[in-house]
Every structure is written in C-alpha cells, then in structure tokens.
Design goal:
mainly alpha, elongated
Length: 136
C-alpha cells in the first residue's frame, strides 16, 4: 500500500513537472525571439518606438564647444555626427576639445537596443554626464 502511494505521488510529481518545463521552454523561446526580432531595425523601431518614447542621442566635447545629435528616424546617423566633428576640428585647429563624448548612458535592460550597443560606434565613445548642467 505504501509503495503504491509512493509510486502514485512520484507519478503526480512527474506529470506536474512536464507542463511546467514546457511552459518555461515556451517562455524562453518567446523571449529569445522577442530579443532577436526587436534588434532587427525595422521591427524594433516600429514596435518599441510606439511604446517607449525614444530620446535623441547627443554628443559633445569636454568643454561643450561642439555638440551634435543622432536620431535615426530623422535620418541623423552617427556618420553624420562624425563628419560634423571632423569639420569642427578642421575649422578650429587650436581647440583643446578634440575628443567626442556621448551624453547618453547605456541601459542593458533595453534589450531592443543591444544591436546598437554592439555595432554603433557612438556607444563606444567615453561617457560624459551632463545632467548636472541641465535645468530640471
């Protein structure tokens, strides 16, 4: 009798574990698909730009003599920022501001930006905190 009860309980545990594992597997696959699709530029911008308000990526020099922004939806990419910075350096050869900084932080929780964090050169620039200079 005890053996039958133990067998029945063991069978119950195995039966309840299978659906949980299946649900976890479905959730994991759905999350991986969401991350992959959201990092595909068209899908990510279409879906997440409508849900979350995206800010412009701003760049500056240490003393603020040069500033530029990047906003892909408006056709303002990082290559444009680089061209503008090169022009600034050529027209101001005496300036001590020769290093470009990004003024926006990287948030790893925004998984739909992971592709940008890896492949966009702007995210590899040193970070300069400008929040103390901005008025609330």
């Amino acid at each position: 009798m005890e053996t039958e009860m133990a067998l029945a309980n063991n069978l119950k545990i195995k039966m309840t574990m299978k659906p949980k594992k299946k649900i976890l597997k479905i959730i994991l696959v759905a999350f991986v698909l969401l991350v992959l699709l959201s990092n595909y530029w068209i899908v990510g911008n279409w879906f997440f730009s409508g849900i979350f308000h995206e800010e412009w990526n701003e760049y500056t020099t240490i003393h603020g003599e040069f500033t530029a922004d990047e906003f892909l939806e408006k056709g303002r990419d990082f290559e444009r920022v680089e061209r503008m910075f090169d022009e600034f350096i050529k027209s101001n050869p005496q300036t001590p501001d020769t290093v470009l900084y990004r003024t926006f932080s990287i948030n790893p929780l925004k998984f739909w930006h992971w592709h940008e964090y890896i492949f966009n050169k702007g995210y590899r620039l040193p970070y300069k905190d400008t929040s103390k200079n901005k008025k609330d």
